[in-house]
Amino acid sequence: MTETYPMFLAGAWATSERPLEVRNPYNAEVIGTTFFASAEQLDHAIRAAESAFCELRRMPTFDRVALLKALAEKVRACREEMIRTVSLEAGKPVREAEIEVDRGAFTLDTAAEEAKRIEGDVIPLDLLASSKGRFGIVRRFPIGPIAGISPFNFPLNLALHKVAPALASGNPIVLKPPSACPLTMLLFARLMDEVGVPKGAVSVLPMDRETGDKLVSDERFKLLSFTGSPDVGWDMKRRAGMKPVVLELGGNAGVLIDDDADVDFAVSRIRVGAFAYAGQVCISVQRVFIHESIYDRVRDQIVETAKTLRMGDPLDPETELGPMIDAKAAGRSEQWVRDAVSGGARVLTGGQAKGRFFPPTVIENAAPGSFVCSREAFAPLVTLFPVKRFAEGIERLNDSVYGLQAGVFTNRLEHALYAFETVETGAVIINDVPTYRIDHMPYGGVKASGLSREGIRYAIEDMTEPRLMVVNRLESQAVS
User: Fold this and answer.
1) What is the DSSP string of 160-212?
2) Residue 256, H or E segment
3) Which of 98, 282, 364, 376 is catalytic?
4) Whole-angstrom distance, CA of residue 430 vs CA of residue 385
């Protein structure tokens, strides 16, 4: 008998006439059942969020801080259950699920600290004689109900990157978790219920596509925050109307290895960056540009280390690479590799799906326009290219419609600075892979990779608006 997880609707537990079975990607077993929200239930959540905004916007800072700290402690107390839930529903190796849950608690802790630092400015306005005696005060105010849509690959932490800054800044949020992995955030909803999150402040509602589209179009939402695929995200922006939209989308993240780089370290980090969670990470290493003088050495080491990855049951602590989210994703990855081979690429290892598993795959000589190079594979797949010069490597990195993060391995300061100035991404990671992230840093991309930034402080900026008060200190009111 599997557990039933009710929806968290405006601070109360609810069901619907449409059950949603959640299956383990490893063996397709049902691990829990929840429900799809109806259009009427979503409307109830939105109306409750509007009502809760009146309370949240006036909630003193110390109460918001205490609430977020209490949630962080609850996550730590519930750590083992959360780890197991993430691993079961997302197919994530348990060692990676442990990292995600610990990061989730850190995200909440960070939000508590950032709630203390929502500051403003005092600015002089008497820069012209006509403004004599005037000064301005700028404060940031919460904007109102927020619509959040989170992805399957980090079912806890990426959802918390929407919920935590919303609570920190005094905004209610209606969250649509991924249909493949909704149970983790419904488990977190229990924790919110236990610590007394105000009724209506947060709703966690699984939804089908038709109902979820109302998150995009409903004018009662003052911000849409979406993490997911570029095609879906940019279509949402077109349909969102006047509301601001935050898009954290995908990429085909690149790495450049200079001729003086620490090769052993670079390869060890690519092993993680390319194959962690079966490559189902927005900043997974997909393209590697290697100085030709060390190309053969780096290529051979990457191939050998890929072969050592252990595939298996995500709940086994020894497993390094689990299944993809479904068989369709694995089969699609195999087809993209076949297409690359037909265009002249050579598969050095991997390339053939085994059910829901797709083995670590390394390719060279792929055409720049092939899918495995030009689009987001979202698979444990990496393509290798030799380059003659560091500057050529930068040009190849930038030859992409995406621009999320890039990694550059070099021991030359001038090359690091050149990369920082010229790489067209939201972040340049020196001497590490683009897969690096810590949750308080600004995170987001340029070009097709998205709009604005996540990271608690930066999300709070999107969830608040600056308001100016001009004070005219009349001379007639001067103290004598």
Assistant:
1) HHHHHHHHHHT--EEEE--TTS-HHHHHHHHHHHHHTPPTTSEEE----HHHH
2) strand 254-257
3) 282
4) 19
DSSP codes joined into one string, 362-427: EEES--TTSHHHHS---SSEEEEEEESSHHHHHHHHH-SSEESEEEEE-S-HHHHHHHHHH--SSE
Identify the band that residue 2 occupies on the pLDDT scale cut at 50, 70 and 90.
Answer: confident
Question: CA 98, CA 373: separation in Å to the nearest integer?
Answer: 31
Q: Is 282 noted as a catalytic residue in this protein?
A: yes
Q: Which of 89, 96, 100, 248 is catalytic?
A: 248
Cα–Cα–Cα angle for 441, 442, 443, rounded to 5 degrees: 105
On the question of pLDDT at 283 being above 90, the answer is yes
The percent of residues above 70 in pLDDT, for the chain, comes to 99
Q: How many CA atoms lie within 13 A of 87 on its CB side?
A: 24
Is 80 exceeded by the pLDDT of residue 477? no
pLDDT of residue 478: 60
Residue 479: per-residue pLDDT:
62
pLDDT surpasses 90 at 273 = yes
Q: Which residues does 366 contact at the CB level (< 8 Å), separation at least 6?
A: 340, 343, 344, 345, 372, 373, 383
CA nearest 89: which of 23, 9, 148? 23
Domains 3-249+449-467 and 254-430 share a fold: no
pLDDT band at 474 (very low <50, low <70, confident <90, very high): confident
CATH architecture, domain defined by 3-249+449-467: 3-Layer(aba) Sandwich (3.40)
Query: Residue 10 pLDDT > 80, yes or no?
Result: yes
d(CA 6, CA 126) in angstroms, rounded, equals 58
Using the CB atoms, write b or e for 206-222: b if 16+ within 10 Å: bbeeebbebbbebeebb
pTM of structure:
0.96
Domain 254-430 falls in which CATH fold? Aldehyde Dehydrogenase; Chain A, domain 2 (3.40.309)
How far is residue 267's CA from residue 146's CA, in Å, rounded to a whole number?
Answer: 41
Q: Is 54 a catalytic residue?
A: no
Domain range list for the chain: 3-249+449-467, 254-430
